[in-house]
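Form P-L/3: holo structure prediction, ligand arginine.
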Amino acid sequence: MSKKSPVSRSGRFTGGPAAEVAKFTESISFDWRLWKHDILGSLAHAAMLHKIGVLKKTELVAISKGLNQIHKEIAAGQFKWKAELEDVHMNIEAELTQRVPAGAKLHTARSRNDQVALDVRLWVRDEITALLGEIAGLQRALVSLGEKNADVIIPGYTHLQRAQPVYLAHHLLAYVEMLERDCERLWDCHSRVNVCPLGSGAIAGSTLPLKRELVAKLLGFVNASGQIQLTQNSMDAVSDRDFMIEFAAAAALLAVHISRLAEDVILWVSAEFNYIKIADAYTTGSSLMPQKKNPDIAELARGKTGRVVGNLMALLTLLKGLPMTYNRDLQEDKERLFDTADTVRATTRLMAAMLNHTKVNKPVCAAAAADPALLATDLADYLVKKGMPFRQAHHVVGAVVALAEKTGKPLNQLKLAELQDVNPTFGRDALGVFNLKTAMAKRNITGAPGTKEVAKQLARWREQLS
Ligand code: ARG
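OUTPUT (holo model):
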């Protein structure tokens, strides 16, 4: 048994919990990370308690001073966290009360249940802002790489088989679009994170005339049109972790997008593709094979996605069997939340850094894009323009492809007579289809990888991200 009884047990209990119980139930080893937000919440709560007459002016001043002092000490790494005080909330409050007697009034009309709900909302709110900044950085890295290689054409792939030519920039901008939707999801989630639960108490609010609006306003729980955002049901407020799951879900999808990008990068740096080269500082070597240079950032980005997806599953499963309202199970949310936030933030940042240190192997890309088979569909479109139904045109070009294979010639080396043997609709201009530059100039509908359209999209993103 620990000698000192933690503050939450004085009165009712005869002593502290058994040592192994304390070790099993503590959360300070990870929830210390909420300290800044816990102090912010306490400062606002104290200001409100003063407004309603629970704290005298001198008491408010002493509490605020004490909390600010503790803030400084924690920031400087001088604060001693005590495991016997269980969590971040009790550590800070106990320390405050030791220094400032009025600290004992701070917990008036507040429970750790609404306190932790508040802290975590404040934490996620900041995290979303920071993550959005990192995502914009990754988008900028993709746009820059596209701009620097604006003339590079590569084969686009379906089934990982060469399909049709695309500008490299078009391929990269596909990820910029995905990332933009991730930002929108995070912002949407932010609107439900940004609601103040304080004042819900342990489960049933308070008999004291709390000014919840004041606390919410002080803490910035205000929507875009300036309205104060308060939770409307105390039971929901202390047990709701939807906002966290939404964040974890948006983060998981972001991680999945980055994982797909990572997979493309891994393929492209392989000797088989050889489309890009990552700077030495952003690759690693092998301890055994001296020639190796591995794309470990991309591989870990792909690998860490598993954890982030797992965290989402863990959070969903954590909630599924919980009766109303707060249950200690909820303490298990934090490590999953922190891990998700840390992982996606670092992954997004490192992928951006890696792409900012990546060069494109233009001659290899040009050789790959010169494969005339990539323009087989253009040849079918040529026949369509001559009035042939597409199904027939597809069949005719299929026969042309088979002929090229049989004669061992690339598609564009076939003679006009050979084409006309397959179908007389082919005219003298048919082989002109295989001019890549002209072919790319023709793909100019919205969203297509045409020369003008890709330039327009690059310019739009450059503008939007600046
Ligand atoms: N450490 C707890 C958590 O993270 C804080 C809330 C504890 N509340 C309680 N009634 N024991 O969930």
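COMMENT: The mean pLDDT is 96.
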